[in-house]
């Protein structure tokens, strides 16, 4: 099971990460949100995306988007509380953008945060997120070996 410790998933220093695999980029008074590289790799090719729509209120830790791949269906939770102001229509038409460019063209929603500073305190950035994830992998490996 050593392969899990050699994970090549990308964790960018300019992004915040949530434990259930959402990423967030602060852009002025908005937050761009998508699915991190770990989740898109684990899910496989994404074939369906169903995010909350503009005007919807989102709560940190509650479902923001449902995703479907050929081998997985599930939710990614919101990393912050706020209101959805825009959905990436291109991702709705071409869900595989999440796999091809998870931190660029594969973004999912823009949210107007309600309390950004408080919510950011619950997230991890770049290398800190990678270290947290690798620690979680190590814990899992200890349980199964």
List the defining traits of the structure above.
single chain, 145 residues, alpha+beta, OB fold (Dihydrolipoamide Acetyltransferase, E2P), three-stranded antiparallel beta sheet, 5 helices, 28% helix, 32% strand, globular, disordered N terminus
Give a written overview of the molecule.
The structure is a single chain. Helices cover 28% and strands 32% of the residues. With 145 residues, the protein is α+β, with helices and mostly antiparallel strands. It has a seven-stranded antiparallel sheet.
Write the layout of secondary structure elements.
Layout: E1 16-17, E2 22-27, E3 30-35, H1 37-43, E4 46-51, E5 57-58, E6 63-69, E7 73-77, E8 82-87, H2 89-93, H3 97-100, E9 109-113, H4 116-120, E10 124-125, H5 126-144
Antiparallel strand pairs: 1-2, 1-10, 2-3, 3-9, 4-6, 5-8, 6-7, 8-9
Briefly say what this structure is.
With 145 residues, the protein is α+β, with helices and mostly antiparallel strands. Helix content is 28%, strand content 32%.
């Amino acid at each position: 099971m050593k392969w899990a410790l050699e994970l090549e998933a990308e964790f960018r220093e300019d992004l915040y990460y949530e434990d259930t695999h959402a990423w967030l980029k602060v852009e002025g008074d908005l937050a761009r949100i998508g699915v991190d590289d770990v989740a898109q790799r684990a899910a496989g090719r994404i074939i369906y995306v169903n995010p909350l729509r503009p005007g919807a209120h989102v709560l940190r830790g509650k479902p923001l988007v449902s995703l479907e791949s050929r081998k997985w269906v599930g939710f990614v939770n919101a990393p912050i509380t706020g209101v959805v102001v825009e959905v990436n229509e291109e991702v709705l038409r071409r869900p595989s953008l999440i796999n091809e460019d998870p931190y660029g063209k594969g973004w999912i929603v823009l949210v107007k945060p309600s309390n950004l500073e408080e919510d950011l305190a619950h997230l991890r950035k770049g290398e800190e997120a990678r270290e947290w994830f690798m620690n979680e992998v190590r814990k899992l490996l200890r349980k199964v070996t």
